Amino acid sequence: MAKKKKKEAGIVKKIAYTLLAFVALVIGIKAYDLYKEIKSPNVQLSGRDSDFIYIPTGSGYNDVVNILYQNKIIIDKTSFEWVAKKKNYTQNVKPGRYRLKEGMSNETLVNMLRSGKQEPVKLVFNKVRIKEKFAEVIGNQIEATPNQLMTLLNSNLFLAKYGLNRETALCMFIPNTYEFYWNTSAEEFMERMYKEYKKFWTEERKAKAKAIGKTPEEVIILASIVEEETNINDDKAKIARVYLNRMKKGMRLQACPTIKYAMGDFELQRILIKHLEFEHPYNTYLHDGLPPGPICIPMVSSIDAVLKNDKNNYLYFCAKDDFSGHHAFASTLEQHNQNAEKYQRALNRNRIYH
After folding, report:
1. Could you state, in order of their start, the residue ranges of all structural domains in the chain?
2. To the nearest whole percent, how much of the chain has pLDDT over 70?
């Protein structure tokens, strides 16, 4: 009897060990499956090491899922959605520009998206002539659309808080490379640019502007004309001084780039009498003083050339007849006419008539 009981106890013990082993195996398999769902690679980028996804402001979880699935980024949708729900990403969607890497796991992807850990945009702009083009350049780099930007750039009411108006709006933008988050609104962009504008206008620069009797906005308007006159940095300060000398004497600027701007034809190579007579507030052949606003966003080199306050008594200049980009300067109209005649002959020789 005792032997029988001992034998039965041994059988029970074996069954128990077997059951425990089976349960451990099942748990191990489940744990491995869970590990795979969380840790295994689940992002594919079709051979690219990395790429970006853009989640617009106001997006919900379903919008993010659609973006990922439509671009065929997720390998196993079920495991991604399981991890997303477990980590409560469904209630924590944040807009932005996110860098994905080939082979990312669900855990890494969801943690990044849930935390809002996006990568900034290196926003760049240089010389731009008109507001519409500027809005397009910026709208191609951040979430704010060209239309949203144009609404602000044309709003005297909005611009008044910066001391600007729709004509002088482009004075606020200093060419450079700036870091922005992609999901920047038009209003946020303008506010940041105003801060950069104030930072640019140091006490030293403001003192230089005061020394030539100009406000920062007037300096930029003049710099925009200088910018359009030449790409040769060595000539910029001389050209700026010519215009300052003219204004000091009560002469009109008679700046050819303002004619091109007024007519909206930036390809004009030869300014004719009919162009000079084109009625427009930006035509400095017909109107005294500076135009109402800048004719482009000037580069910093042109702004500083105006502030340099180069000392000369030139009142005239024209392009040199060698088409080098340099200019011939003159203090008298007689000298200028001689220089201009050389340039006109060079235009004729090269059959440039308009």
Report:
1. 50-115, 121-200, 203-349
2. 87
